[in-house]
């Protein structure tokens, strides 16, 4: 049983005051949760295995601050534990270009996940836990327990109300993730007031229903032993994740403690002063850290963690001698590298190959690279036979006791939980060890996970969405299921690829570029219906995100399209040729990647002097960027046979031809006015 | 205790076969759940109060098929109950332009909510139940129980896994909605296989934790008495919603019964034949309805419901005599009309009024119209003091026993549950009685509710999102909270307004148009920071969605902007004038509304021959539709003081001026080439 003494109290007061000083200096931020959770942070961090001297150690314990607005607490802990945050950085809390932004971001030292948007942290932590279990099952050997870290989460009422966490925590319970421990800051306060206003459910009972172990801490404000015991008990529960409901006083010590006002407003000067006095600090000084507190954390966290990390390093060296192949593979993954020449496994097609739905071509890719890339982990939101996301011969990731799979399995059954799945794959990617997770659903329902997708883009998590049934082409399921605005949405989101391959080579290119992109998530939109292999497509060309598929000597018009409409344009071009209108066909499988090419290249694809018409069975809004005229669908879809719907909206060879003729005629006397879309003033 | 006999068995078989015949004829659709749930549908519908002869009766019981893919069942019941669906309509299931699309849509007769996207139905049903409670509390008088209908939901495993339903059901438990009854089709099957793969939580325990009553039906396949008793028991529970876990066999009677394959694939011909034989029908005939079944449903549902509806009509007539004001108000609401001249309450501003944040201006609007529009119901996802969504003097909608409000209250505390809130306000709007719900959150987190927002647009639910903290202008909370792509997303979604008012008159216009739009939802994006009242803005002009704010004789350039950037452009224009560049300022507060204006009007706003530059601190993607050059932010935001961030991204007077000068110079010799964006070939 740990002995806690004066030094612990002093450390906790130091943490509390550093946090509120940062908030007060910024005159912005959230002092309530830091004041309430500082004791738990202190107890937890002094027993976690991590170190500022071993930031990338793959077996470090992971700490996630799901209530990310409490980050003044996190930055204080990181500073005191020797991470690369100076006192000046704390003073720059919430200031432009500082290292201490208003919510924690993934790229910062010691921050395991971007949090702030509620529910994301705890849900992605489920992914961190899954990754650890899988890594352990894949590489651990007798006498070489390389992977055994825990994942700890701080979460508040907000995170637990969010549906995404309900989804992910149900998954965690099913998967029996005993390596996941959540400390729930039960302070009975939310922004609107008391939790009695809207959040009166029995939280622990709900978590029992999910299959979690549930514990309680009655006095999270001051009873360090109680906190410590709960964490130890949680760690001992091997086959259930644990949630510890910890009673705290929000804004502990403040004159406004226990009230909703202390959640998100800096303490007033008088309040701050009385707080410092209360804790035995000089009320006139700020950002004060007694040397003994630095020494204490250095010993308890930094050096202890470094010792563990060094021991681990020796163990891993021995492991590499005894298991050279596995050891090299793990080292490669730790270094964040894909296997040499992996892309040679990607299937290549010629126009004589049969027409195949791109969702099926995606499955072929996954089957082709599955064994080469042990870092691939797949999942689907209960649409496996529709998404075709499960590689042949793969094992399901399941607790062995279920007999449905085991921890080394790389295919997760996520259930009908798109947002939870999105957060989970974010966590798997964030874990490290080069994990490359992908999640499947219908393209339209990627929107259910928009919160998680955005965090992936902001954080640079290299996740892949395998998004099938991409348009009216899905047919009878109808407008509730047919994407219209989805690609426009994600094309406008920074740092995310939105691939819509038109054939097999483009599908291979989509996976190639997506997997090579270490810091950019990807959505790959795939058809339900068969598409022909295109003349002129290659993996190399498609990897530019946009390219000339078929050219003519002097184009009278340029047809640009993505996915299923590329072949439609190819067919239309033949008809147009018979009418003496020569069309260049351009395929733009991914705006993001295309926009990264040189301006000269892009101008060569879409030059001056030729009218450009886009053709895509989605909203037209994103195409004005590249095209003078847009043929799209700015209405909801329809329920019916796919071919009937295509006809209904005019997307036939004849429909494209008619519109191309109109466009050609309209611009005939204006061609000199037509500039490449890439020749701009700004 | 109800006696069930042969006629009931015959009716159930008829329903089952009509459903599978529709699926087989379409060669598409989901036969499993219809076969499994037909008995429950039969028992429930024969005791619900509704009638095809009283389709808009405000006190009808509401039935929601949350597992919307089972709609072959719904259409069969609707046909048999005399709704406007012929046998031919059933034969046209899932065919283009039929009345029987692949998932049920709100505008169809007898369909209470659009479903298909899982989780939406059950969650919006919570809104239907809230609306009923509120209507009852508002209008019922002793001896005049005008409102007392129940809301019944069929839901499957999929809906219960979705986070949105977790959120909404937690709210329903807190609100003690005893008028809500969910029948959960516990068939242990999902698309991937058995629920043992991913959905092993204790569902009833979870619902107990939410505060629901939980019941079970062991034999939903055949024990009609058991089903009936459970429904009766559920109705008796006055202060808790009820979930009834009903054991069924998916695909009951099919050779594939109990397997995941029967979920979403038509029965094979042999299977269909054996099924018909099993049920005592001719295996060679399809779409067979014995006359006695028509007669039975006509008596048990249509005529019985009509009787209740007629009684209600008489009661309401008496009520109108005794309570003329309330009666007239309720009649007005039933007729779907707003009060005459309500818009005269909207505040009007002049440039001498102070600068105010538009979130505050929104609050002023709500306060101004709150009493005039008793149909307004507000809520916030735990951001009430930030969204400023609670009208002065309003009462919270809470169970009276909590002492926090009562059922007549019109402000709901939704908790941190954006998606659940979105579905709930959809349900409130769908209820009828002219309910006009609005939900508040930060604009960035409207994305969490994208699923529900899309259904609102598809269905035409007149909901309003009060979406504050709309940009980098929110400052220190940083990139996790600052919208970039959000407006582009929703601008590309059909049938939804995306207002971003620039001042007080524009805010009033946003509410005016949003509330007048009966079939189009609306997002109103509002600032945290103060904005000046603009010279040239009026409610009337802004109501066009886009207009010339300030003009010049011969514009050298047109600056178009929305919201906070309009005043920035106004200031920049003054500087530009001193450099002899005359700028017209155009404000586009809502693309959707602007696009509905005549093409001549729009050309008058954005004519030929003038370079058009957009200015908006969001993604540029949507502006290429209107502008030649776009000044925006195609990156994530930053954490810092709002003014520092604006400066960082160049959004200062000087920054706008520099870019405007560049644009002006670039197009000086190309003006003759510049066409109005509304002069297109297509």
Going by CATH, the homologous superfamily of the largest domain in chain A would be: Thiamin diphosphate (ThDP)-binding fold, Pyr/PP domains
Q: What percentage of residues of chain A falls in helices of 4 or more residues?
A: 40-55%
CATH C-level class of the largest domain in chain A: Alpha Beta
Separate helix tally of chain A: 26
Number of domains of chain A: 3
Helix/sheet category of chain A: alpha/beta
Query: Within the largest sheet of chain A, what's the order of strands?
Result: 10-9-11-12-14-13
* Content of β-strand of chain A: 5-15%
Overall 3D form of chain A: elongated
Please report the total strand number of chain A as a whole number.
20
Low-confidence stretches of chain A: none
The appropriate CATH architecture of the largest domain in chain A is 3-Layer(aba) Sandwich
Which assembly state applies to the chains in this document? Answer: homodimer
Instruction: Please name the two chains that share the biggest interface, counting residues whose Cβ lies under 8 Å from a Cβ on the partner chain.
Output: A-B, 130 and 130 residues
